[in-house]
Structures are given as structure tokens and as C-alpha cells.
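re: ur question from yesterday

yeah so i grabbed the chain u mentioned. its 178 aa long if i counted rite. heres the sequnce exactly as i have it in my notes:
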Amino acid sequence: MRIAMSGTHRVGKSTLIEDLGEELPEYRSVDEPYHLLEEEGYASASPPCLEDFLEQLRRSLELLEEEDTRNVLFDRCPLDFLGYLLTHEDSDAFDVEEWLTRIRSALKTLDLVVFVPIEERDRIRLPAHEDSQQRREVDEKLAWLLLDDPYELGVEVLSVHGSGDVRIAQVLKRLGRG
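ran it thru and got these C-alpha cells back, copy pasting raw so excuse formatting
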């Protein structure tokens, strides 16, 4: 299967991928586009500007389009960046319609998106310098994109909750392994 973890920053996506990698040794992990771009020399603004999120969206789409193997765990998917773009202060400059055909096509290569929402009690402490309001807005936008599917993207979504062990068990159960 091709599985992507989705959620705003600091909700435990990367930790979940690491833990699932131990449970699913036949799977390989693909790092999130931000880190891949950074390794390739891309310098993102702090905080990221609209173009930074567009570049991450492009890279995420490329990963899904280029990677044709099975048994892959992706850290993030194009919908993550759509969530950030739609909530960005400069979102008026972003035309979602221009991207939907390519996003739909790339998402069809995924078998499952695991949505990791913000929980009532955060599992990862948010540093004081980070914008908690923006994080909540992105989380709400991702829930809308993934669970309400307003753009009729048709991706299968599993929303996970609870401790790390509980989240792993939820994914393994969905995969028929638990």
C-alpha cells in the first residue's frame, strides 16, 4: 500500500511513521517535502511565505508522481500544503482551481491517508514562538479537506487519535494486521 500521513505541524506524523516503520519493515519511508527541499538547498522563509508552501506542494506532487513502488509511507501529502495555502495570510493569491487536476491525479496513487489531528491534549508541546492560532486553522482546514472532501478528491482517510501505541494499532487494524 501507499500511505501518507497528514496533519498540521507537531501532531506526531513523523513519530507515527517511525513507529509504523518498525511494525512494517517491508515499508520504506519518504521524508516530508520541507526536509527534502532543505537538503536540496531550498531556503524557506521564516515564517514560510506563500511561495514556500507552493514549492512544498510541487515537491509533494512530484514525490507521488515519481514514486511508483508499493509499501511506502509518505510524511505528508499534497493536501497538507493545500491546507497551509488556503489558510495563509496571502491565500487570495493562490488559485486552488489551477492545482486540483494535478492534486486529484497524484492522490489517486495513494491507498490511504492517515489524518493526525490536533487532540484536546497535545501530544507534542508547541514552542512559544510558534503560532498556535495558525496551527488550529490549518488543522480545521485539513479536517474539512480530508473528511468533508469539498473538492471531491475521493481519497480514503483514516483519522487516528490517542497515544502513539493506540494510533499504531488503528493503522495496523485498517491494514488488516491488528
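noticed a couple things. The chain has a mean pLDDT of 92. also The helical segments are 13-23, 33-39, 50-66, 78-87, 97-107, 132-148, 164-174.
anyway ttyl
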